[in-house]
Amino acid sequence: MQAHVDTMPLTASEQGKPKTVRMAAKLAYRNLFHDRLSLIVTLTGIVFSVVLVAVQCGLYIGSERMIAAMLDQSKGDLWVVPLGTKSFDDPSLLIGHEKYSVLSTAGVTGSEELVVGFAAWRKPKGGTTAVLLVGSDHQEGSLKPWNLTEGSIGDLDAPFTVAADDTYFKDLGVEKNGDTAEINGVRVRIAAVTHGIRSFTTLPYVFTSLKQARMLIDAGGNQASYTLVSVSPDADLETVRQDLINRLQDREILTQQEFRNRSVDYWLFQTGAGSALIAGAALGMIVGVVIVAQTLYSSTKDHINEFATLRALGASAGYIHKVILIQAMLSAVVGYAIGMALSLLVIWASKDSTLYIVMTPGLALLLFALTIGMCAIAAVSAIFKVTRIDPAGVFSR
Predict the structure, then answer these.
(1) d(CA 50, CA 363)
(2) Angle at which helices 317-349 and 36-73 pack, to 10 degrees?
(3) How far is it, in rounded angstroms, from Cα 153 to Cα 363?
(4) 91 domain residue, yes or no
(5) pTM for the full model?
(6) Whether residue 101 is found in the same domain as residue 244
(7) Model confidence over 44-78: pLDDT tens digits?
(8) Is residue 149 part of a domain?
(9) Which residues are 78's β-sheet partners?
(10) Are 144 and 212 contained in the same domain?
(11) Are residues 184 and 306 part of one domain?
């Protein structure tokens, strides 16, 4: 670093000029890459932080999407749900005949019944596992299997057929489309295969027809778990909702967004899962700040005499602060690039697993801003150190 002292600005009048900025960047670059060990330690802290925050935030977004997947695929305005329902994956049966009460309400243009329930899946080679059975009208309803890779919706019209996701084939003990198993003691055949329909509860979704689902979970012919209501664009949603509340006692009438929010809030916050993900992301940021701050502070302390020399030659405190901040920003950019590459690798490696990690452009920008902010905060300790430099001290050495 001493070899470049003569290139530094010596007068306060030169501060703020483009040349000064370029020289500060040059000095910061050489100071950063001079000590390779310190650079590796700094980048390790930043990369660790970026990867941890990216994975934790990606899991949070993925979890939210998994929880709301069925609701997001459904097309409707209001939901009739059993009283006290916490989420879509917390099903129970309604009293019955809700569909007819809904259709006779002014402003309603359509009604769709869904039968959702837990069932025992007996594997072909022995053993059982729990599944979440989803029964719907595949011809006229909005909720039906999506992301089909094998088979078709029409194949589910055949008796005793179901659709399953290939992500859970190992858990279900099956290998391909056409394999057979038992649901609650009834033999069924996989007639369609989906990909990427994951469940936050880790219980595989198994799709079948409405009639078949009622039979498999022993529901009445007029019973459903949920009734999805379509409201005319000309009708007032709250008026229709109040009419349904008056007609359907001991049920809840929720808007699409309310049911979605309730489901997400239950699984991510009432169960503590979301709080754990947020805490993990915060921990990653704290670890990153501590490591980078310690490294920058040590680097500044090791070169304190050189910084004192610059001050003695006329460099302002602001100039030296600029050097340290640019050094921190360079660390942030390099660490972010490596961390994002590793994060995308982790996301790619998990794409066929039950883990759903999502990276969005907004999250990538947020991570970049957090990395810059983290390194800027870490630079503060080093700046405090050089602020106390006595330029006269260089002459006493």
Answers:
(1) 11
(2) 50
(3) 35
(4) no
(5) 0.76
(6) yes
(7) 888 888 888 888 888 888 888 888 899 999 988 99
(8) yes
(9) 229, 255
(10) yes
(11) no
